[in-house]
């Protein structure tokens, strides 16, 4: 039992934070937002020099060989800069392929670790399977328009589909969160490779942890920036951070962020130790962190006053990312209902 | 205290409705139900001139200045029928509801003759220049300077959040006319023509991709020496009076828009099945209750004969509607789910409910943040001590 | 259309407020709490000298002949002092009897107006009717242990039962809100007089308005007392009411109370004008006002600090009353669900 | 960072559990699961002496003073097993968890020898005297006076919210020992025997009908000149250090109680059918999440090697649990419905959940109100400006 980051984990977290602070600047993110929602050069460095894409991939499979705590530290840092990268699909795709463990996965794992292929994830219960072909509406897919590989999760089964396949129809949309644009994906007898039995669960668990950690990073950054602003900005002849209503509101955010941090580490530990607690820790972490982020980002706008709702200021990037994290992989209500089912409905 | 209207009031309602419906289903059908304020400004101007031509542009004003001396109840009825007919939001809201009543209260006869006919006729659109980048909600921190030179006020400085400045003919501003003065002293209320080289307008793009607000720069901008309301140094008092007109009957027209927004959420919930989700049902019920209570709160505020008294309904109105609309935006997105986050428009433009979700974050900020509103409620409503000012 | 109190209504409200402020003192209420939950002398004055029990009863039936606005003003004043009186049962009983309008009602109306009989209300769907006899569990009844007459409402029908009847079994309980103690009522073939078709609806409407108005009065009083305390009490060398967090919290209560006031007047007007709006106004007023009162009373405790949770201070009287109003005649969730059904489920 | 325990830790857990279960199923079965702190004080004393006799009374203390030099993880394990076995809340919580560690940190060897053995053995129960009627949460406003006279500190004044004073042998107080001093200066930390004519205790009845707190009056009460921790005038510093011990491993034992309370709510929901209400289900899920996050927050706080650093988990812990428990009380009542509002006890005594609903209103007040906690988090955690003090 030990619930502090190790020195090595702290170092990884610091490195990731510095990397994103330096590279994922507002200007670069905004350029990606105006384009297809990915900062390709950032993603190349992330996968290449930094090797972050393979953080939880075993060394024999070409990765760094660490665990979910370290992955969470990286995702937290990415969230702190609202980085425009396809991290969610990458991590979920890798988790699915690692769980599958088949021979055909090795090459794809390598491509995802290296960043030479981009993965995105569709979850849908509207699909029909016939042979190894999928048809139907796969719903809205984050970074779907730039993906090379589509991980498809339906009814706890997982398939892999190449987006270049003739049976894949992808329609991009203007999306509120431009750092993670959504595209509608439809299949018309698309060729699909089925993955092993645990692939869907592994991908979803990793995805929930990824979103929770990103939300934690985003919430902390929104708070930090608002605190900094409140110490600079004066109104009524005072630093606005000296007003108690302002202080208490930020204190409430800080309380939630501390809880969010406990949630992310708990969920990551539970995955690393393959504990049954994961079945409650993951929905808890995802729903709690997403809401904490949303409130922190909403307060970031509110407490910046007029400048806070302009396009020019970064507050809206956090706010929109927080909203997209709330809906991705299921709403807070849905995840809380899952927890309620575990707590209330199992035999007494 | 009673609900419902007298036969005379119902007759007036029918008169309003008839005229408005003829317009909105005839010559102005092309702008019926037009949302926001930025689309089709020329047609909006035509429409506001048409209102004036039939003496419907400022019915609460005295007949002498183009109004109808309409009672509060009549104004309520007109506002409701205006919204019901789908008539578009008024470009000249600021002129009719804020500048006009303030000029009526503080202006000389010459001033009334100079400004009011243009407002009443729809020829002069007005906007408001109070906020500044370093003042925000704090009017006493205004820095824009004005000095009297050769029979003209010469102004230098910057205003911000001037909505609709790009369509306006006049802007009223608070400027510091006593050099070296601080706080509430030494401010004056000036009325300035916008179409002059000294005034530059720069739109501010917002969170939702639209640009309703502007920065307005004054570089040796001028107005006549007589374009001042009240005496030099009276600006604070005039501005406070003006702000008190903000809670007029137009709030009820605004509520008709809120009703449309809530109805759109209800329709979306019915369409996608979330209407059967007990959590969504509770929130829709809360929204419904909140909107109804806004209506009766507004009616209490308008029925209060003694408008000078501290009126709880009036003091709490801004934060009520702003918070209600912010919550409605969040509810709308939860009803729509992920599908609410996408749009098939070119560029960054979203349908009504997603746009509401984004834009409503501004509602709790402009016109006095929720925090400022709570200060005012606590200090003026409950008599709690004022916040101390720091050293400027 | 007029939404201000008339001079006469204002006078009634002032008179009621003065009456309760003078008579329903903390000492007298606490004496009633230690006993059976009624200040009999207060109730006698309320019905007798003041004539308040008959405020909405027509003059020909021995009342004052005013309406629901005036009744709401009286109930609001009673709530402002957490008065220990059986007002709810009295008003509901009178509403039911007036709606019934039968000959046999006249005497009972007279007794309730005069205060010579006390009414309490049972609502239950656990009763069986056989002939004109009721059997079964009538649930928890406010002031049930001191009632002479029991108004029984089941499935939108209403009966009158004398509590002295042999088939009536009443068990009093220690109750959190001692100003409105609950008793379990059971019937064993109790003789019941059926009331006319509108009696149940009239009683329930009046009951919801009564609770909403009491809650409004209680919330306003809790706020006023907390404001007064915050101006007297100093901490950290300042009036505690000068702390902005304190101010904003009280401002939030003031905002809700203004809404609660609109709700009560709206509901009362809707009843007076027999408007269909009543079907939404009544559940809206009851649920909104009860919650506003609960928060005002909870803040009263919180913002008084240590003294606020002592028995000696009156804050707990407000808090407990607020809680009992939340549950009486149905929870807030229930009433909001009714509104949702009206808004969402009727044909588009 | 890891969940789970090593084999050595599991062995220690088994040792704790075995011993505790033997006690609680044997000689002390009569006080197993006893709630609160006020019932059966004599049997509680017996139990705490039994703990001491087997060196389980203060395992985190040095062996020299009756402890086991137990690691944090061992303390966590003991606290969990203690609660799991149904062992009752400790009368001498304040002595073992607050007074002891503070004496270990600030006491001379003579002082350690004078006070620690009594605490370790269970013979000396301690309580805390910080709050005063006119000081509340503001320790710097303490008015109680103490002066040195003939080798004794002579004290006059009043303390309030002294929990369990009625069962205690010693009270530590903050008193003003420099006449005319103000604020944090001139305060001293004194340790005072309670059984003397100068000390009077009056119970304070609470909202739930119980009386866990007291007013304590000092009228020429005395203690020895040496019954002072730190130097005269050092009281503020000693008190602050003491308060930092409040967030020790005993928080985990407290969480086992919270677990029982939440389980009771879950059981009630299952019993009366409200477990199928989606609104209740969401709130129970939130409560479950909140409790789990409290656990991992406490473990983060305890795992933080550098206890002197500003630690977000520690700073936010009090308001987290107090708010959680207040919300749980409201949830419990909504689960129970009207049936939760009655009791068949004589007098004003309510079952566990209703009592929780009432008593939890105190949780957000004592030991620093939620408002004070937010000040501390904003100022010490976020570095925002301190609240200005008014003129005293």
- Give the mean pLDDT of chain B: 92
The share of residues in helices of chain B is: 40-55%
Most strands sheet of chain B: 4 strands, mixed
Order of helices and strands of chain B: HHHHHEEEEEEEEHHHHHEHH
Largest interface pair: A-D, 53 and 52 residues
Order of helices and strands of chain A: HHHHHHEEEEEEEEHEEHHHH
Assembly category: heterotetramer
Question: Would you tell me the structural class of the helices and strands of chain A?
Answer: alpha+beta
Which band does the percent of strand residues of chain A land in? 15-25%
Q: Major sheet of chain A, described briefly?
A: 7 strands, mixed
Secondary structure: helix percent of chain A:
40-55%
The unreliable regions of chain A are: none
Q: How far apart are the termini of chain A?
A: 28 Å
Structure notes:
The complex is a heterotetramer, with two copies of chain A (348 residues) and two copies of chain B (392 residues). Chain A is α+β, with helices and mostly antiparallel strands. In chain A, 54% of the residues lie in helices and 16% in strands. Chain A is built from eleven helices and ten strands. In chain A, β4 and β5 (157-162) form a beta hairpin. In chain A, α4 packs across α7 (199-232). The longest helix of chain A has 34 residues, at 199-232. Chain A starts with 6 loop residues before the first helix and ends with a helix. Chain B has 392 residues and is α+β, with helices and mostly antiparallel strands. In chain B, α1 packs parallel to α3 (72-84) and α7 runs parallel beside α10. The model of chain B has no long low-confidence stretch (mean pLDDT 92). Chain B has a four-stranded mixed sheet with strand order 1-4-5-8. Chain B has a four-stranded antiparallel sheet with strand order 2-3-7-6, with no helix packed on it. Chain B is built from twelve helices and nine strands. Chain B starts with 6 loop residues before the first helix and ends in an 11-residue tail after the last helix. Chain B is globular, with a radius of gyration of 22 Å. The A-B interface holds A 139-140, 173-178, 182, 184, 234-239, 242-243, 245-246, 298, 301-302, 305-306, 308-312, 316, 319, 323-324, 327-328, 331, 333 and B 131, 135-138, 140-141, 160-161, 204-207, 209, 277, 279, 333-334, 337-339, 341-350, 354, 357-358, 361-362, 364-366, 369-371, 374, 387-392. β7 of chain C pairs antiparallel with β9 of chain D.
